[in-house]
């Protein structure tokens, strides 16, 4: 990915920490809400987060 000034951009290292935090919160709430669908829900959630993160860094 390249920015306007030609620098190669990459997401900062803390992104993984943010994802883990979201993921933990999500697992916790999801576990309370519905246990059967948790695997599918987790995948969808991670995918959504990845897309969000990717879109954020495209805008730089």
Write a brief structural summary.
By secondary structure, the chain is mainly alpha-helical.
Quaternary class: single chain
Total strand segments: 0
One letter per element, helices H and strands E, the order comes to: HH
* Helicity range: 55-70%
Using the alpha-carbon principal axes, give the shape. Answer: flat
Give the N-terminus to C-terminus distance in angstroms. Answer: 10 Å
Mean pLDDT: 63
Taking pLDDT < 50 over at least 5 consecutive residues as the criterion, the unreliable ranges are none
What's the alpha carbon Rg, rounded to whole Å?
15 Å
In percent terms, what proportion of residues is strand?
under 5%
Q: How would you describe what is shown here?
A:
The protein has helices at 14-33, 38-58. With 60 residues, the chain is mainly alpha-helical. The chain has one domain (14-58). The chain is flat. The protein starts with 13 loop residues before the first helix and ends with a helix.
Could you give the topology of this structure?
Elements: H1 14-33, H2 38-58
Helix pairs in contact: 1-2
Descriptive tags:
60 residues; mainly alpha; flat
């Amino acid at each position: 990915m390249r920015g306007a000034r030609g620098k190669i951009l990459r997401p900062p290292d803390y992104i993984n920490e943010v994802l883990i935090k979201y993921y933990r919160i999500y697992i916790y709430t999801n576990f309370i809400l519905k246990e059967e669908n948790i695997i599918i829900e987790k995948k969808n959630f991670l995918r959504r987060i990845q897309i969000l993160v990717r879109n954020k860094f495209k805008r730089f």
